[in-house]
Design a protein that fits this description.
Strand 7 and strand 8 form a beta hairpin. This protein has 3 domains: 317 residues, Distorted Sandwich (Beta-galactosidase, Chain A, domain 5), CATH 2.70.98.10; 110 residues, Immunoglobulin-like; 190 residues, Jelly Rolls. The strands form 9 sheets. The protein has a 9-stranded antiparallel β-sheet, covered by helices on one side. The radius of gyration is 27 Å and the shape is globular. By secondary structure, it is mostly beta strands. The protein has 3 helices and 43 strands. This is rhamnogalacturonan endolyase. It holds the Pfam family fn3_3. Keywords: Lyase, Secreted, Signal.
Length: 677
């Protein structure tokens, strides 16, 4: 780690980071967990590390490890180094912003204190006299340290009583801000790690803000090799299913600071929800609730007369080290091994709160998911035995309408994938009522098992064989793409060379580059996209996002894409069906017309949909939406036809949609002929 150029992940098995790299342990008693309670702070100490937390506020001001007196940024005030925070707003508010609340406890308590473990609590009780000025929650923030454990845990218990006012709750998280002169290398995945710019490089003196504040062009960075790159924290977002470990490496001495999340059960929106990870600061985050990549639809809204309680975490902050001169990238390999160990240990058996359910208080569910996709052939339901749903996502979420799991944040969710035979099992499910949900790559729509499933301690629920019949009225006449809820299968352009992030050059996640929405008008300077069924290739000829065309510095124009296709004949008595699966939408309105570009009104309009902001935030999807458009036969003709897809909202550059999949179905096939006696 002599230079700041991007390095590939070290593929060698990481040497297990030992706890006595430079840590002095004077005798066996040093291995006990100790609490040093002072007037204004408490120190958790297990001989490997010492964590200093303000009392009674509960903010982390110091993490001492491996001979370094504090891994956190001492240039910041003590309350601005490690903390829990949230965003809330009054009931009836719109959007995803509100009051920023850095949580500070008013009471400190020791919950557990023995040689093996310490657990401490920082609580803040809602004061009804502060209605409208204080979030109506009781909050209990816990920290845990274990013997011989190179790190510490934290979890939070949030409670809203029935008689308290309603409010909106867009976000809560844990934030750690590390020393900028120590931690320069960041890792989010094997193929997403690099040396990072300094926070100074984002200042007006050294950086140029781009289309939104998060994106900054580095014009005069401290380290010249970063010059000309774009820095944006959203370039390092990650889906929950892949967001289990991320963090920072210090080169000398080789030290890692890692955030490990062993379970997704307490996060918003299921496995595909995207969250922030680590970014320039150096900052590392543990996100629990957020509206990113979904907008207001993802805001948790607690109503009047609605009691609610939820446990967020525990999550683990893991520290590792190597002897001076060792390859620091082995710290990442070790962190992944530690993550796997934490996942294997979930649910933990050491949190003291009764609100965190241990393994013996949880339940189990299993079953087999089959699919029957009717109507592909001439006659319906002939020899159409259901087949196993391979690689399907199956999950438990609080009861709700079909597909609402992707915006659900009040309760807990538990997800898995089916095996090649369609079998699935989910263990360690918290007690309560759930719907069983599923979606299958390769098929449109969502499945919901209608009976509510009640999970009780120790239960073993077997739903046996369940069958998903995805939406279909008739056989497929043509299709564009493959239904997997993302736009990744479509054409993603290279970025403007003036606005690159070197990490994503020749990278499968090239969609994370800045400014790709501007490339559309460069690729289609005069006319909008035209796609011809049977001739065009969606991988090359279907731009990944239908965005607006820039007319001048302050004016934008909506775009109309065309799908051209031939029909040998048209069934005059039938109705055709157009399926439009969207991977994301942002303040967009999609209108559908058939064979008449200026038809008024349009055959179909979505209305204004979406606040996902995935186009700006370098996502390849946001929330999934599926629309079914009936196409009367009298709108179609034998020979060449054209479907016009118009995105009509055009007040800025970041409005638009990404498609997941488009399909035209013919009229329903006739019923099979009846058998004669």
């Amino acid at each position: 780690m002599e230079t700041h150029g991007s390095l590939p992940a070290n593929k060698e098995a990481g040497a297990k980071a030992n706890h006595d790299c430079n840590v002095s342990l004077s005798d066996d008693s040093s291995h006990r967990v100790l609490l040093h309670v002072r007037d204004k702070h408490v120190v958790m100490d297990n001989g490997i590390l010492q964590v200093t937390i303000s009392k009674p506020e509960g903010t982390v001001s110091e993490v001492r490890y491996n001979g370094i007196s504090n891994l956190l940024e001492t240039r910041n005030d003590e309350g601005n180094r490690g903390y829990w925070d949230l965003v809330w707003s009054l009931a009836g508010s719109t959007g995803t912003t509100g009051f920023d609340d850095r949580i500070k406890g008013t009471s400190f308590n020791i919950i557990v204190e023995n040689e093996e473990q310490a657990e401490i609590s920082f609580t803040r009780i809602y004061d009804s006299s502060q209605e409208g000025k204080m979030v109506p929650l009781n909050i209990d923030i816990r920290f845990i340290m274990l013997r011989n454990c190179s790190g510490f845990y934290s979890y939070g218990i949030y409670e809203h009583l029935r008689e308290w006012p309603a409010f909106n709750f867009p976000q809560t998280r844990i934030v750690f801000k590390l020393k900028k002169d120590k931690f320069h290398y960041m890792a989010v995945a094997d193929n997403r790690q690099r040396y990072m710019p300094l926070p100074d490089d984002r200042s007006p003196r050294r950086g140029k803000p781009l289309a939104f504040p998060e994106a900054v062009l580095l014009v005069n960075p401290v380290e010249p090799e970063f010059k000309g790159e774009v820095d944006d924290k959203y370039q390092y977002s990650c889906e929950n299913k892949d967001l289990q470990v991320h963090g920072w490496i210090c080169s000398e001495p080789p030290i890692g600071f890692w955030q490990i999340t062993p379970s997704n059960e307490f996060r918003t929106g299921g496995l595909l929800k995207q969250n922030l990870t680590s970014h320039v600061g150096p900052i590392t985050l543990a996100m629990f609730l957020s509206a990113h990549y979904g907008g207001e639809d993802l805001v948790t809204k607690l109503g009047p007369e609605e009691p609610w309680k939820k446990v967020f975490g525990p999550v683990f902050f893991y520290l590792n080290c190597l002897p001076s001169g060792a390859d620091p990238l082995k710290l990442w390999e070790d962190a992944k091994q530690q993550m796997a160990a934490e996942v294997q240990s979930w649910p933990y058996n050491f949190p003291a709160s009764e609100d965190f359910q241990p393994m013996d208080s949880r339940g189990f569910i299993s079953g087999r998911l089959l699919v029957r996709d009717s109507g592909r052939c001439l006659f319906r339901f002939i020899n159409e035995e259901p087949v196993p749903a391979r690689g399907a996502y199956v999950g438990l979420a609080p009861p709700g309408e079909v597909g609402t799991w992707q915006t659900e944040g009040k309760g807990y969710q538990f997800w898995t994938k089916t095996d090649s035979g369609g079998y699935f099992s989910i263990s360690n499910v918290r007690t309560g009522d759930y719907n069983l949900n599923a979606w299958v790559p390769g098929l449109i729509g969502d499945y919901k098992y209608n009976p509510v499933i009640n999970i009780t301690p120790g239960c073993q629920v077997d739903v046996a064989n369940i069958v998903y019949e995805p939406m279909r009225d008739g056989p497929t006449l043509w299709e564009i793409g493959f239904p997997d809820r993302t736009a990744l299968k479509f054409y993603v352009p290279d970025p403007d060379p003036k606005y690159i992030n070197k990490l994503y050059v020749n990278h499968p996640d090239k969609y994370r580059q800045y400014g790709l929405w501007e490339r559309y008008a460069e690729l289609y300077p005069e006319h909008d996209l035209v796609y011809t069924i049977g001739v065009s290739d969606h991988k090359k000829d279907w731009f990944f996002a239908q965005v607006n065309r820039k007319v001048d510095e302050s004016t934008y124009k909506g775009t109309t894409w065309q799908i051209k296709f031939k029909l040998e004949d048209v069934n005059p008595q039938g109705t055709y069906m157009l399926r439009l699966a969207l991977a994301t939408a942002n303040n967009a309105q999609l209108e559908v017309r058939v064979n008449e570009r200026e038809a008024s009104p349009a055959l179909f309009s979505t209305g204004v949909i979406g606040k996902d902001n995935a186009i700006a935030r370098h996502g390849i999807h946001g929330l999934y939406r599926l629309f079914s458009v009936q196409v009367p036969a009298n709108l179609l003709i034998p020979g060449e036809n054209t479907i016009f897809l118009s995105q009509t909202m055009a007040t800025g550059p970041l409005q638009g949609v990404m498609y997941d999949y488009i399909r035209l179905e013919g009229p329903p096939p006739p019923l099979p002929p009846s058998k004669k006696n």
